[in-house]
Design goal:
Rossmann fold; 5 strands; alpha/beta
């Protein structure tokens, strides 16, 4: 299983991913975009640099999933085409669009032209919600989707 949490910086992706891992009775491997950038010294925020970071993260997730590991990816991943490609290759990828209208101090990292998902995703607005409430919303939604 791959949970793909996508959305602009500051929306709560990584915090929610960590809370899902904490609440779950399953073992998860977390792939965080900031960690991947740091690990591979990728400070290129151009479209090509972002695509490389996304592809690397997705390839790591595919490898882990092929070895029977549950994976949570917490990544801005602004390009719908790349997210859709991942979902089309595997039946058990759950895309979760995390967003907020609240000012959280990471707006200077926003990706211009972020492409929101349009089908087969869970929509999580984190406005006025705790991290735990958002994590439970994902867990409950997951139970009601085709990915179960």
């Amino acid at each position: 299983m791959i949970y793909l949490l996508t959305g602009q910086p500051g929306s709560g992706k990584t915090s929610i991913a960590k809370k899902i891992i904490e609440l779950s009775k399953q073992e998860w491997f977390l792939i965080d975009g900031d960690d991947v950038r740091e690990l591979f010294d990728n400070i290129d925020y151009s479209k090509l640099g972002r695509e490389n970071n996304i592809s690397l993260s997705y390839n790591i997730a595919r490898y882990l999933m092929s070895n029977k590991r549950n994976v949570i990816i917490s990544l801005v991943s602004p390009y719908k085409l790349l997210r859709d490609e991942l979902k089309s290759k595997y039946d058990d990828v759950l895309e979760i669009y995390v967003h907020t209208s609240e000012i959280r101090g990471r707006e200077h990292h926003f990706v211009e032209g972020y492409e929101s998902p349009t089908e087969n995703f869970i929509d999580i607005c984190t406005d006025n919600k705790t991290i735990e409430e958002s994590a439970y919303e994902i867990i409950i939604n997951k139970m009601n989707t085709k990915w179960e």
